[in-house]
Amino acid sequence: MVWISRICYRKYGNFVDNLRLYVRGGSGGMGLPRLGGQGGKGGDVWVVAQKEITLKRVKDKYPQKRFIAGVGTNSSVRALRGQKGEDQEVFAPPPLLSSVAQLVEHGACNAKVVGELNTEGDRVLVARGGQGGSYHSEFLPSKGQTRQIRLDLKLIADLGLVGFPNAGKSSLLTALSHAKPQIASYAFTTLRPEIGKVMYEDHKQISVADLPGLIEGAHMNRGMGHQFLKHVERTRQLIFVVDVCGFQLASKTPFRSAFEAVQLLTKELELYKEDLPCKPAVLVVNKMDLPDAEDKLTELQEQLLNPHEFSHLLPEDMVPKNNMVFRHLVPISAATGFGIAHLKTFIRQSLDEDASMATESLHRDRLQALRGAVPAKNSLTWGPTPSV
Question: Residue ranges of the alpha helices (H) in the chain?
Answer without folding.
Answer: 55-61, 169-176, 225-232, 258-272, 293-305, 340-373
